[in-house]
Amino acid sequence: MVALAICPRLHAEGSCQDPQCGLNHVMLTCDPCGFMCASAAEMEEHTNSRIHQNKVKGTSIFFRCSVCGTRTIGRQGWNAHVHSRKHLQKTQQAGVDPNIIPEEPDQIPKHTYCVSCSVHIQDAYWDRHLKGEKHLEKERFAAFKVVLDETEKDKHGISVAADFDFGIVDLPEATNGKVLNGTISTSIPLSRIMLVDIKITSVTGATPARSTFRVGTLGACMIKVSQSLTFSVTFCQNYAGRCQDRLELVFEDTQLKTRFTIARPLFGIVGNKADHERLRPVAPYVPRKKSARQPELMVVEGIRPPALKAVPYVVPLPRAAIPGGLATTLSTGSPANILSRVQSVFLPPELNTQGYARHFKHLLWIEEFRMEKDLEIYDMTNANLTQHGNLYYLDVPGLAEKRPSVLVGDRILVQQRGAQEGHWFEGGVHVVRKEEVGLRFNASFRGWTRDQRYNVRFKLNRYPVRRQHQALDTAFSEERVLFPEGVHVPRGPYPKQADVRLRVINPLIATNPPQLQAVISIVKQAPGAAPFVIFGPPGTGKTITMVEAIKQVLRANPNARILACAPSNSAADLIAQRLSDLNTNELFRFYAPSRVKDMVPDSLLPYTHARPDGHFSVPPMARMMRFKVIVTTCVSASVVSGIGIPRGHYSHIFVDEAGQATEPEAFIAIKTMANSNTNVILSGDPKQLGPIIRSDIACKLGLETSYIERLMKRDAYDVRRGYGITVVKLVKNFRSHNTILKFPNERFYEGELEQCGDKKTINAFLGSSYLPNKDFPIVFHGLCGKDDREASSPSFFNIDEVLQVKSYVEHLRADRRFRTTDNDIGVITPYNAQCRKIRTALRGVADSVKVGSVEEFQGQERPVIIISTVRSSTEFVEYDLRHTLGFVANPRRFNVSVTRAKALLIVIGDPSVLSLDPLWRSFLNYIHNNRGWTGSPITWDPNAPVDEAGGYDRQIREAAKLDMNDFARRMEQLTLAGVEATEDGGNVDRPWRDVE
C-alpha cells in the first residue's frame, strides 16, 4: 500500500531528488491550471472543479499592489504577495501597513474586463463568457437597476416631493394606519401633463400580491404650475415586521401623447423604536480577513498549570501528530481533489476490523487540521496584556460565548509587535474568567509594559484528540462490537417479561412495556454479547431506562462494575444525579481537572475527589477499583485505563446520548477497557443531532456518523427483527402534547410514538390568548424581518424576531391565568448573534429564560419553547437555498427544535424563506391547515402537494426575474404609448436635410 502513496515533495516542489524515496512519482498535469494529479480519476475530478472551469473559461480576478506595482491573480496570489519578503520590505520603507487594500488594475494584456461580473476575461473566451447564464443574469439585473433608477428621477418638469420611509411605527398606530403625504408639481408653465394613474407595484406586477400600503384614489388630474397636487399613502399592518414596496405615478403629456412614470420606494417597520435602536448593529459588518499565517519558527514553551498533573497517569499519551503527507494533501487543491486523494491514498479500501484504526485515525487528523484552520479567525493583533504577579491577563472577545473556547491547560501564543518574525512565546492558561484568561510564560518572557502590544494566536487543545488516538491504537478489535452480524446474536426468543421476575425500582418503568423490555434484555444479556441499543426518540425516557438498567445489573450481579459515559458533562451529570441513591463508596463522578467547582451541581460534589489545591482528581487506586459505578464524559473515560485499571475490570460500559458522540469518542472507553466478556449498551436517537464536525471532508468520509447510527443501519439492529435481542425502540412519549408530537412523529418515527404525557402539563395552554386556534398549541408567527450582521462577526441576527420573542415572553410572564415562570420558557435559535441579542432584550424582563442553540437544548425540555429562525433574506435573484437558509433546514436540527416543547410551541420566522425548504413547507402547511397561523400571511397554497425534491428557491428567483422583466417592459411601453404613426416607411428614399 505504501508504494501507492504519492510523494508529498512531488506535490509541493514538483520533483523529488531523494533516491531512497519509495513513494509514487507518476503524476498527470493539467495544462491550463498547472495542477498535478495522481490518477486519471483525480484528473477527471479536477476538470470538474470550479478552479479548472474558471481557468478554461478564461475567468480571472486580478489585484495590483500600489506599493510594489506587482499584479497578482486571485485572492491566494494576493495573500502570497502581501506576505512576501519583497512586499514587507517595501511597505516598511514606505511606512505603511503591509495589509493594504488591493487595487483592481484597469487593463490586463490579452484580457477584457467584464463590468457586470467584476472579472477579467481572456480575449479568446470573451464571446463564450457573454453567452454564459451567470453573465446574462447579472446583465438582466443591471438593466433592471438602470430602469428602476431612471423611474425614480423627476422628469419632464414634473417633481414628486415625497419620502415614504415610514420608519419604525408601533403596533397600535400601524394597525390604525399611518399616513404620509406627497406633492406633485410642475415647473413648466404651459405644459399639459396629467396624472392618469397612481398604484402600488406589488398589486399590479407580474406576480400580484397583497400590499400593506394603500394609496388614495385621485382620478385623472391636470398638473398646473400654480398649484401642487397632494396625495397620501397609508401604511397599515396589524402585525410586527417589515414591508417594502414601490409606488408608481403614471403621467401623460397630452400634447405629445406620451406617458411616463415616476416611482418612489415605500418602506415601513412595525415595532418598538427604542428597542430597535438599542439592538441595532454596533458597527457595520466587515468580514474578518483570513490571510496566510507566518510560520511559527520558534516557540518558547510556557508554564503549564498544576491541573495538568492532578491525575496520576501511568500510561503515556501519544503525540499523534498529523502525518506530513496528509497535511500537505489537505493544503493542496480543491475539496473534491482532496477528498478523492484521501480516499485513494490514506484510507483503507473498506471499513473493517483490519483497517478500522487507520480509517478513524485519519478522519481525526482531517478534523484536527480543519479545527486548527478555523481557530485562525480568532487571531488577535494589537492586543494588550495586564500583569498581576506571575500571571499575564488577556481580554478575549467572545470568550463567554466560547468563541473561541478556552479551558485551563490550553495554550495561547503571543508575539511582541515588531519582534523577530516567527518568534513566539507560549502562555499556559492558568485562569479562565468571563472575558479574560490568565497566562503564565517562560522566565525569558521580558519587555512587558502597559503600552506594549502583542499578536495573539489560539492553539487547539490536542488532549481530547490524543486520547482518541490512544484508544484507536489499542489491540481490541472484536467483530461482535465493531461490526456485529447475525452470528453474534443469540438464536431463539428474547427474554419475555412474563418469564422474568424483576422488582422494578422506578415504578414508571413497570407501566411502560418497551422500557421494561429494554431493562430485562440488558440484565439477561450473556457476557460478551453484541452491543445493545436503546433507541429513544424525543421524550421517551431513554436516560431513565438506562439508569434503571444500571441499577438492575448491580442488583442481579453484586460483582458487576459499570463505566457510564456521555458526550457532555451535562448529560453525564444527569446520569450521576439519577444514580445518587447509591452511596459515595459505590458511585464516583469523575471530572477533568480543568473543570471549575462552580460548574458542578452541589448534589454531586460528595461523589467527586479533589486535591488540596482544589483541582478534581481521582482517589487512590484501591478505592477506584471498589466503585461499582464510575460516571464520566466519553473523552474523560480514558482516565480509568490511564491510571492503570486493568482491561475487563468493568463488566458493562454504558454510553448515553451516544448519537452526539463521534465513533472514536464513544470508543475511548470501549477500546481501552473492554475484553471478550464486556457488554456494551448504547442509548440515543440517530434521528436527532449527531456530533459537531467542522471538516466537510471528514463529514463526507463518515466522522459525522455516530457509532449508534452506524449500528442501526446494520441488519442485526432492525428494530422489528432485533427487538429485545439487540435493540428496543421506546415509543411512549411523556413530553409533548399530541399536536406538537404529531408532525415529527409521522416524519421521523413512522407514526409509532404515543402521547403519554401528564394531561395537566401538556394541556396547560389550551384555550390561551396566544393561540389562533385554542385547541392547537402550536403557533407560527410569520414575520418579515431583516438579516443583520455587525462588526467582524459572521453570525446573523434579526432585530424584528428578537422583539417578537421579547413580546411573547412578556405576555407569558404577565398572564395570571396561564402562569409561566422564566424556567418554564426556552428560546431556541440557530445563530449565536441572535442568542446574544435576545438575552440583551430579555435583561431585566426575564433574565432566567434559557436562550441557546439547538445543540444546547438536545436532551432538554420546557413547557414553552419559542423558536426564532432568524433568516429573512429576500435577495432570491442572487442567493441560493444553501446561503438563504443555511443550517436552519437541517432535518435533525428541525427534529430537535420542534420536539422540546411540552405544552406550547411558538415558531417565529419569515414564511417566504422557510417555505423554500420542503420539510419546513410541510410543517408550515400543517400549522396553517390547523389554524395555528398568525402574523405575515401565507404566500402559497397550503393544500398543494409538497415537492420533496425542492426547487422552490428557483421558482422564487424565476418569479423575481418575471417581475423585473415586467417592470422594464411596462416602462418601455409607457414611453412609446400614444405615438401616432404618420408615415408608412416611405421615408427611405427621401433626401437628407441640409443642416447648413
TrEMBL record:
It is an enzyme of class 3 (hydrolase). It is found in: Cytoplasm, Cytoplasmic ribonucleoprotein granule. It holds the Pfam family zf-met. PROSITE patterns: ZINC_FINGER_C2H2_1 (PS00028). It catalyses: ATP + H2O = ADP + phosphate + H(+). Residues 30-52 form the C2H2-type domain. It comes from the Eukaryota. One of its GO terms (molecular function) is hydrolase activity. Its main location: cytoplasm. Keywords: ATP-binding, Cytoplasm, Helicase, Hydrolase, Nucleotide-binding, RNA-binding, RNA-mediated gene silencing. Its EC number is 3.6.4.13. GO terms for biological process: regulatory ncRNA-mediated gene silencing. PANTHER family: CANCER/TESTIS ANTIGEN 55 (PTHR45418), CANCER_TESTIS ANTIGEN 55 (PTHR45418:SF1). Belongs to the DNA2/NAM7 helicase family. SDE3 subfamily. This is RNA helicase. The gene is MOV10.
